[in-house]
Amino acid sequence: MRLQMMLGYVMFMFGSLSVALGAFVGINIGTDLSNLPSPEEVVAILRSHQITHIRLFDSDNHLLSALSDTGIEVMVSVTNNEVLRIGQSPAAAASWINKNVAAFVPSTNITAIAVGSEVLSTIPNAAPVLLPAMNNLHKALVSSNLNYQIQVSTPFSMDMIPRPFPPSAATFNTSWDSTISDILRFLSTTKSVFMLNAYPYYGYVQSNGIFPIEYALFKSLSPVKQIVDPNTLFHYDSMFDAMVDATYNAMSAYNSSGIIPIVVTETGWPWAGGGNERDATVENAEIFNNNLIKRVLNGSGPPSQPMIPMNTYIYELFNEDNKRGPESEKSYGVYFSNGSSVYALGLDISGGMTVNASSGGFCVARKGADVSSLEDGLNWACGPGQANCSAIQAGQPCYMPDTVENHASFAYNDYYQRMRSVGGTCDFSGTAVTTMVDPSYGSCIFTGSTNSSIGGLVPPAFGPVGPPGATDIQALSVLMQSVEYDEIQQEF
């Protein structure tokens, strides 16, 4: 068994040219929001944080143009309502490739095409054309001599595995046996990856208390709560690992020509929800994504496939306030549409810090802190604390946005950077927190920053909220050392 796993890994490493060597965390970029930042603003954020992988839910030509010469690896998508036409017509597939792929490469680094989103789960009537659509697109790539650079696959939902635990006994829904078998054969032949949308949030909620929330959040489990597969005796420290392993096991019943690597195309945790979604909180979302980043970037796979990294795309960059469905569906984003952060993530996607390593981080106002307490802290920092607060005076670079939270962040940080070496702390009666994300934006440079403004498009990384209509977008603190439950549920 171990030899088989090793051979599968070698096949993956040498046969799949567009899969990055080493683990990565990417991010999904949805567009169903009221005030979508411009493509240029989005790319400025990505470049400033050295984000290397993104997934689009369509093939937005404006954004693909803006991504030119950035080196960022881009996964584009065929939307669900395009699958039927492409599956029925090779000419339509060739036209789609010419318009949305060939027209942009090699300047834009497109490396994968996701055909639909959870098609078998959300629009099962399209199942007969799903594989033909994938085949037609692949053949069009071959005709354009792009098939060695760009993979074709389709994201599956965990709903396709009715009983994911124990992972060793997991199987796909048998009603889809023929379709899944054919898709796996296609992925193996074309050396593509299996795309999986795996949400421990939903797994935890639907378990009705069977699994502890620590298991869903990558938290340490006490000895009495250890999760063990009774058949393999593998210990699972997270539901995420178990979901990936369940999918590997489900695939093994069909595929005999080697292991098909899994890429998790969507995962995340909502930071807000309705009255019956009590676990959708800012704290849980922050814990989940930070722990996810650490888990993926350690480079190991799940217990059954430890040599295959679990490359993952977090859902998602911005909160999509126009999405239909439960409140939680609108609340997966790391950022609000105005660019302010929902919560802090300490590492960028490349695995490096966004601040000077010797700085010890930045001190900023705690999101949601009492305004009157922030005012007290601001007044103390600019007075007895002797912080240099000239930059937050009217007309100066850090005056806008004109909020107590924004001004307090600048003053707190200036005090902290000046006084930390002699015992100054980042507390201010509980209204301040430290972050490794540089809060500088535009021409407003926070003390201790080594970053320069990128076209004036990199705003506060924590706390401050931009004024209405502002073009500055908050610096993407995620990404991390990186769908919503997106299902583009459109009928043909």
From TrEMBL:
GO terms for biological process: carbohydrate metabolic process; defense response. InterPro entries: GH, Glyco_hydro_17, Glyco_hydro_17_plant, X8. It is a lipid-anchor; GPI-anchor. It catalyses: Hydrolysis of (1->3)-beta-D-glucosidic linkages in (1->3)-beta-D-glucans. It comes from the Eukaryota. GO terms for cellular component: plasma membrane; plasmodesma; side of membrane. SMART domains: X8. Its EC number is 3.2.1.39. Keywords: Cell membrane, Disulfide bond, Glycoprotein, Glycosidase, GPI-anchor, Hydrolase, Lipoprotein, Membrane, Plant defense, Signal. The keyword Signal applies. This is glucan endo-1,3-beta-D-glucosidase. Belongs to the glycosyl hydrolase 17 family. Gene3D superfamilies: 1.20.58.1040, Glycosidases. Its main location: membrane. Residues 361-446 form the X8 domain. The keyword Plastid does not apply. GO terms for molecular function: glucan endo-1,3-beta-D-glucosidase activity.
